[in-house]
Design goal:
3 domains, alpha+beta, single chain, 397 residues, 22 strands, 8 helices, Immunoglobulin-like, six-stranded mixed β-sheet
């Protein structure tokens, strides 16, 4: 592994989510094969000598399946990534009576030895269902691969995905110049798509992967959807920093302060069936603390249209001395922003709501009001929240 990313990956898997993001963002070298022998390199060349009619596209598909990208081999040997140049490569191989040692050396270099720890980390990254995207680098500065992996438990229909490219200047995908800023693919369960990128090294390129439409079989999330090939692919020294993960155990939070009147004809919150709650609960880093923040509005959407709001913040975690918070996550979600949205939810006579959530930091919440002066009025209302397990990523200061 010719990168300082190795030092981070050698941590005892305590920052698995962060590692996945670093792998996706900065790239790794090819991880599918740990070694290559001279015999295997010759076998690779023999294949092209036997089938001289293979197209460049077919050659890329074949070589990708055995872990020796033909594009990288050709570049290392001085060939360009075109159909005509590929034919020159095949003609050169066909003329060989004994194989050129330079060819053997270059093929061996392409399929270089990779540390097993990186393979283990990738397996962890691929454990969550969804579309996984990452950058895979080669020893050539201008050649990289965009790798898309679809992970799903059980059967799932093929998923249409769209790749958006910020800038196509001096960049090719699979040897072809793009005519549009988007390219569509279809990916099957447990399939891996490898897209060869030939780029202008003086520019940075951003790639966004998204599911093109909702598909049967469940919602498909895109993991690490925003990727960038930077001008300088060297990993910053900060990625070798000392990291650790702490856990905030799931718990019920104290009820919020009561709703505050913000406008309307009176200051009393009435129990109308059309009174609505809407808002959010979100996590945020505030200095050395991780906070949970509620902002919600309650509106009487008929009659006097009185409106109220609830604002409450909770200190959920404080970094110990010598450490700072650099990220947070919920369950298997990547570190980053996490929000649970409220409603809009209309309340009936009991004024209690317990929606269940599969995303965001809350397992559920209840919206309740107190007993008012009569059966039609409430003096106030509040929210009670129950958190999911939260993980906090810390960096040594």
């Amino acid at each position: 592994m010719k990168s300082s990313l190795f030092s981070l990956l050698m941590l005892a898997n305590i920052a698995a989510y962060s590692q996945c993001q670093l792998i996706a963002k900065w790239g790794v070298y090819d991880t599918r094969y740990l070694s290559i022998s001279r015999d295997r390199a010759i076998s690779f060349l023999n294949f092209f000598k036997r089938d001289t009619r293979m197209t460049f596209t077919e050659a890329k598909e074949y070589s990708a399946t055995i872990g020796i990208p033909i594009e990288t081999v050709m570049v290392n040997l001085g060939f360009s990534l075109t159909e005509s140049s590929y034919k020159n490569f095949v003609e050169t191989v066909s003329r060989m009576t004994t194989y050129d040692e330079i060819f053997i050396e270059k093929i061996t270099e392409v399929s270089r030895t990779i540390n097993k720890d990186i393979v283990k980390v990738l397996e962890q990254c691929y454990s969550s269902p969804g579309i996984h995207a990452r950058i895979e680098n080669t020893t050539e500065e201008n050649i990289s691969f965009l790798v898309l992996k679809f992970k799903w438990e059980g059967n799932h229909d093929p998923v249409p995905i769209q790749l958006n490219i910020s800038d196509r200047t001096g960049m090719k995908l699979d040897g072809q110049q793009l005519t549009a800023s988007t390219k569509n693919y279809t990916i099957n369960t447990d399939e891996e798509i490898r897209i060869a990128i030939d780029r202008n090294t003086s520019r940075s390129y951003a790639f966004t992967v998204r599911v093109k439409r909702q598909v049967p079989g469940g919602t498909v999330l895109v993991r690490d959807p925003g990727l960038v090939l930077f001008k300088d692919r060297t990993v910053p020294a900060t990625v070798s920093r000392e990291l650790k993960v702490e856990k905030v155990t799931a718990k019920q939070l104290p009820q919020t302060s009561q709703a505050r009147w913000t406008g309307g004809e009176d200051e009393e919150l009435k129990r109308f069936p059309t009174t609505e709650l809407a808002g959010s609960f979100y996590l945020a880093i505030n200095g050395k603390k991780l906070t949970g923040n509620i902002f919600a509005t309650i509106k009487e959407v008929i009659s006097d249209f009185t409106s109220f709001e609830i604002r409450t913040s909770y200190d959920l975690y404080e970094a110990p001395a010598g450490w700072r918070i650099v990220g947070y996550g919920i369950s298997s979600e990547p570190y980053g922003s996490s929000v649970t949205n409220f409603g809009p939810i209309r309340q009936g006579g009991d004024w209690v709501s317990s929606p269940l959530y599969t995303e965001g930091p809350l397992a559920f919440y209840t919206w309740q009001g107190d007993s008012g002066r009569d059966q039609d009025q409430l003096e106030g209302c509040w929210i009670r929240c129950t958190l999911k397990d939260i993980v906090v990523l810390l960096e040594k200061e």
